[in-house]
Structure formats: C-alpha cells, structure tokens
Amino acid sequence: MSSWLTEDDLSPRKFVCGFSMDTPPQVFIWNGSQPHWRSCPWDGSKFIGVLDIENAYGDGFNLIHDNQMFMDEQVKNPYVSWMVPVNRCDIYGVCGPFGVCNKNKSPNCECLKGFVPNSIEDWQKGNWAGGCVRKTDLLCQKNTSNLASSGKAQNDGFWKLRSMKLPDHFEYLYSEDSSGCQQWCLSNCSCVAYAYVTGIDCVVWTGGLMDVQQFSLAGNDLYLRLSYSELAKDKKNNEKFIISFTTIYGVVLLGAFMYSLHRWRANQRVNKENRRKDFEMADSMDTLELPIIGFDKILAATDNFSTTNKLGEGGFGPVYKHKNLVRLLGCCIEGEKKLLVYEYMTNKSLDTFLFDATKRVKLDWAKRFHIIQGIARGLLYLHRDSCLRVIHRDLKASNILLDDDMNSKISDFVLARTFQVTQELANTQRVVGTL
C-alpha cells in the first residue's frame, strides 16, 4: 500500500506501507528504502506495542488468507480511525542503537542501563542517531583465562526493562521456553537481550537494539544482558537506599518514642505536683480547722447534685445548699473534684430577685437599702479590717447570697487578689470580672 502524490494525482509517492518478511511479521512504513515507522511482531491476534490500534480494535485483527479484500459501499464518507506516527518516538530509530525513547521525558532519548552516548557532543545537540555504546564489556568479550586465574570472573546477568516496545532485528526461537530462552542468550556471546512473549514465545537479539521505546502502559518485558559489575552497582545502590531508609525510619521512630516518653514523664510530674498541692491544701485546711468532707457525703446531701438543689455556679465550681452547713463548713478534694461547702442559703442569690418580674416586687426600698448596706459592710471588711487586703474583682448580683432574713453575703472569691494592709497600689496585666 502506497501513498498518493496528491488528492487529485493518484501516482504512488515514496511512502509505502506493508508487511516485513520477518517471522513473525511486522508492519512497516518505508520512506523510500529507509524504515519510517515500525509496529512490533504479530502475536496471533494483534501487533504488540501498537497502543492506539489496540484500543481502537480491542478484538484484534482477523487475517483473510485467500487474498481477498472487502469494502463496505454504504460508508460514503471515509474517516481516519488510526494514524501513525503521532509523536517523535514513533519515528524509526530516533534514538539510535541501544537508545530508548520516552515521549513523556525531556529529552525524549536516553541510553539503556549500562550504556553511554556514542558521542556526547551529538547528544547535547539533540542528535541521537549515533546511539549508545556499552560501558563495561560482557564476560565473554574479556580475557576470561586471566580473570579465572585471578578469581575475579563473574557471570553476566539480565536487567528487566518493563513496558517496552521490543527492538527490531530479532531472531525467533520457537523451540525454547522461558528458562531455555534465557540460557540460550547466556550461552551465546553475541546475544545482547531476549524476551518471552505470550503468543510468540522466545525472541532474541544479537546486534544493536534499534527502535526501542518505553510506554507508560502496555508494552512487554525486555531482558537486557549486562556485566556483573553493572548489575552489582544497582544492587549496591539498592542496599544504600535500604540502609538509608531504615536508618531514617529508626531515627524518626526513636524520636517519636523519646517525645512520648518525655510527655509521659512531664504528665507524671504534673500529676505528682497536683497531688502534692492537694495534700498541702488539705494540711492547710486542717490547720485552719476546716474539715475535709468526702465526696460521697456531698452526693448524698445534694441528692446527687440535683438541679432542684442548685443555687448558682461560680468560677470555682457549683455552689449547692446543704441542710447542715453554716457559712464555709468544709471542702472536698478528691482527684479532679474540688468543692467548697457553704451554708444553706434559703433565698439563693440576689440575681434571682432582680431579674425575675414576679420576685422583683418583693424587694421594696427598705430591703434594697438593707442589702446594699450588707454589701458595703462586707467590702469594707475586705478592704480595711481583714488581716489581708482583699480585692474581689467580680462583684455581681449572682455572687451576693441572701439568707432567711435577706442579709447579703459576698461569695465566689476565685478572681480575688490579696495585698498587704500597707499596700495602696498594684498593677495587673489582664482584665477580669464581669462588665
């Protein structure tokens, strides 16, 4: 099949497409006498390595052996369903012998493992046609008698290349299985690579590997013959990577362990310090003759902290009524539970009257003045008559408790600051209290 000169001139042009005489066959496009594009060998259902046509014709080709061709006359407007070449790597031999082309890399061409550019200058200019040459000769190409006497002889091996377009100029060995294919290549010094493909079996290469391409998907495995020293370099690199990765992982793991141990010890110190403070607080309470009340007793006295018994809640914690308590009767310190037990306040706090439309009317001017006087006397005691000068800093209606006779009592000293009696001025760095 040849191309036309133009759409109007059907004279044959220099581009010709056809099958090669290889076994198995391949499809070629020739530019005159030179290959321009090449498929891969036929495996009985498709030409391997031709990705686009595999996708377009998923069921493969059906060959007609009686030299007949059919045309569907109903298709009036022909269209292009597949075309080659579509990128630079499709051009035959663009990277030269032992060069491999990858359309997803820049530059597209590079040498196969164990090979170097034949001309560094040409490769730097983007002229890759000269290809690559082997860095280290194979064992069979060296003076093996000298190597054997010195004990340095090491057998060649194979490097596996995945997802490859198999090279041109192969030799088909139909009688060899996979292991036999490898042994045949090792026993022949001219063999540079082999592949074992389903539907084709064993193919080997004895010359320069031409028209090699690496795909992102599909393709076949190609086993490239290399000297022992080239394979050992990669093995050493892998060992270095494994050692480096293991070392880094061990350091990170050890760091995580040390950090966790540090946090655990820090938490232990904090817990120990908290327990010490609790004991010191308990000791100070004993000195002040302030009894320690068990948490179970407080549960029983407050009906398991029933909301119906709740007077209010300050910054230190909830304040609950207790029928046997007068003023500050005691405290409870059990783990994270820290409670102060106050006397029972029948009328709860001042805010329950001020902010309730029904109860507000019970506070006539006489009662209000009486409450204000009580608050003033309490503040006077805190500011002038106490052994330490106390500034409350959170005086509000909910912190003023009322007994049976509507006597006001200041409560909740969480935000309070204490000063010496002789101290007239103090500074603070944070604003607290209720606005």
From TrEMBL:
GO biological processes: recognition of pollen
GO cellular component: plasma membrane
Residue span, Apple domain: 140-227
Entries under SUPFAM superfamilies matching the protein: Protein kinase-like (PK-like)
GO terms assigned for molecular function: ATP binding; protein serine/threonine kinase activity
InterPro entries registered for this protein in UniProt: Kinase-like_dom_sf, Pan_app, Prot_kinase_dom, S_locus_glycoprot_dom, Ser-Thr/Tyr_kinase_cat_dom, Ser/Thr_kinase_AS
Keywords: ATP-binding, Disulfide bond, Kinase, Membrane, Nucleotide-binding, Serine/threonine-protein kinase, Signal, Transferase, Transmembrane, Transmembrane helix
PANTHER family listed in its UniProt record: RECEPTOR-LIKE SERINE/THREONINE-PROTEIN KINASE SD1-8, RECEPTOR-LIKE SERINE_THREONINE-PROTEIN KINASE
Name the UniProt record assigns to this protein: Protein kinase domain-containing protein
Annotated organism of origin: Camellia sinensis var. sinensis (China tea)
Native organism taxonomy: Eukaryota, Viridiplantae, Streptophyta, Embryophyta, Tracheophyta
